[in-house]
Amino acid sequence: MRDSTNITRTYMKYALAALIGLFWAFGTEYSNAQRFEWVYGGDRCDEDGQFRVIPVTGGCGQNGDCAGGYIAVGTSFSVSDDCETSDVYVVRFDNCGRAYWEKTYDISGANLDDVGYSIIEVDREDGFILTGYTTSDAGDLDAFLMEIDCMGVPQWTATYGNSDGSEVGRDLIEAQTGNADLDIRPGDIVVAGRTDVSGTLDGYLFRARRAGGALVWDATYDTDDAVLEWFNSLTEAASSGIQGTTTGDIVAVGGRDPDRIQGYIVRVSGDNGSITTGATSAQNVAEYGIDAYDDEFFSVIELQNPAETGSNLGFPNVVVAGYGTTVDAAGSVGIDNFVVKLEDGDPCTPMTQRMIGDGGGSIVDRARTIRELPAALGQNSQYDLIMTGVTDYQGNDDAYLLSLNPNLTPSGNVTQTYGGDQVDEGWSTYPVYRDNIGHLDGFVVCGLTQSDLAGANDPQDMYLIRTDTRGSSGCEQSYRVRYVDAEPYSCIGEVIGRIDVYSERNTEDIDRDWGDEVCACQTPKLNPLPGEEFSGSLTEIAILPNPASNGELLTLTLKATVSRSVTLTATNSLGEKILSKNLSVSEGKNELTIKTAGWPSGVYHITIQDGEYNTTTHMVITD
Fold it and tell me: What is the 3-state secondary structure (H, E, C) of 389-455?
């Protein structure tokens, strides 16, 4: 292991209390969660953290030798002397970013390229399943599934594809639904990726058994023989519609390249990968973007927010994220984060399309992963979204975290970038909870760094970041964005083919020791839960009524242990400041009246700064 090097950067201290109204639970939480940054990889060659990092919360998270923490998958070129061939790279971290274990996996067994893209923790057993691709002796690529136990030991490996083409697995899920009549089982693994078996690149989906990886079905998706298509991510549309039925559909997203790349969305049956359109179906195929420029999707989620259901079928809405091209009124062209909300999860029924960045300016922003926050505690509103990717907002490529409201506008709660003076990218993020009842504790981000954060002349490493609920790692910088609406999309036809080939493989695993801490782990005291007292001068903060009607007077109650001056600000969901006051708070109970006349309906952030803490309360104005 290399000597650890702490990189000193701006440190911002946040403390946070949140009151969520409108059917949301009342609770208080400071933003003083575990925070750190680590890099992992050999000294001479490239490593990365594509495509996923997850908290370990299942059976492996209860293992006494390595409880809790995180696990990430990527790729390492340090396994070869000349840095020309790669192995799958998996690291299991503790809660401070230190490695419980890290391993590389040679799936081909012939020192040929193996690449890891995504990993999940298996729901009902102790272990993980990952996907990517491996190189065959003939030189073509095969998608793979591999199960490892809690300590990273391979349990089984299976490959998918044939000698007529190359197949890649980019993302995977464990299905929650099934169809007993067709022997389609909950717990099956579904993978999205790409294949060139037809002679051009096509989208590729397959479903396999949880134990052993036996192929259930596979399908290729080709809109046009002359057009390239591929999938980067998928989700299961598992929730019920107005008929009370559970679809079990699969929604896959990626790119389609008729001339320039377009965002590509496909919704298919989870039973066999087929597409059946009609009045009671959300299955469809669509592309998004401006024909003359590039657009691509990298992440998709089905929303759990009860308010986010379509008016046509009653199915949950779906959100897709990636990057797109923005052209402003002056004709300037820029690359921005591209987020789309699909009504009923139907690719051909967009509700909202937003470009989030600098709106056609020179800054490049590309989203890689988006998640929903079901928790209603901390400063993050219930059902807000959190997104990571890469931006050159600070002058060079950095990883970022950005929070969005459910309407896909920036919420202003989390707006941070991470990295050094070279290329740093966020590829995956996940909310971290401090208990099993949904108290949000922060976020974990994984990606890659070329900024030599731990030592000179190290070309690229896996980059692991743990933040508090405000996105602070202790070494972050600011990220400010605006948004514009987007419109272009079209429904397109699809031709579905089959490959139907899989085989079992043996995998060699090798232990590694490559981690370096680059932003020291800060271990705070346990955050206060609802009903516990604040630390600091303000011991109680409440606002009533909440929600309030437009024009209604609000009463803000503050209890303080000492007299001091505070600043009160109110901002709307766009981050625009609508109120700012300097106040003197006395020891004991203080009440302040706030006038809301002229405030439009929506969510507002009431912030109290007392010189030591920033304390934020959310409240809602209704018509």
Answer: EEECCCCCCEEEEEEECCCCCEEEEEEEEECCCCCEEEEEEEEEECCCCCCEEEEEEEEEECCCCCC
Kindly state the average pLDDT of the residues 501-507.
Answer: 73
Cα 263 off chain centre by? 18
Separation between Cα atoms, residue 487 and residue 448, nearest integer Å: 32
Cβ count near 330 (within 10 Å)? 6
Name the percent of the chain lying above pLDDT 70: 83
pTM of the model: 0.78
- The one-character DSSP state at 311 is T
Contacts for 445 with CB less than 8 Å, ≥ 6 apart:
53, 388, 399, 401, 418, 426, 428, 429, 463, 464, 465, 466, 467
Name the pLDDT band for 27 (thresholds 50, 70, 90): very low
pLDDT in tens, 284-325: 999 999 888 999 999 999 998 888 999 989 999 999 999 999
50 conformational bin, left if phi > 0, alpha if psi -120 to 50, beta if neither: beta
| Closest among 200, 157, 197 to 499, alpha carbons compared | 197
Beta-strand pair 249-257/262-268: antiparallel
What pLDDT sits at residue 455? 67
Cα 432 to its chain centre, rounded Å, is: 12
Burial classification of residue 504, based on how many CB atoms lie within 10 Å of its CB (0-12 exposed, 13-18 middle, 19 or more buried) = exposed
What domains appear along the chain, each with residue ranges and CATH number?
47-160 (no CATH), 538-622 (2.60.40.1930)
Nearest to residue 60, comparing CAs of 4, 124, 140? 124
Counting Cα atoms < 13 Å in the Cβ hemisphere of 603 gives 27
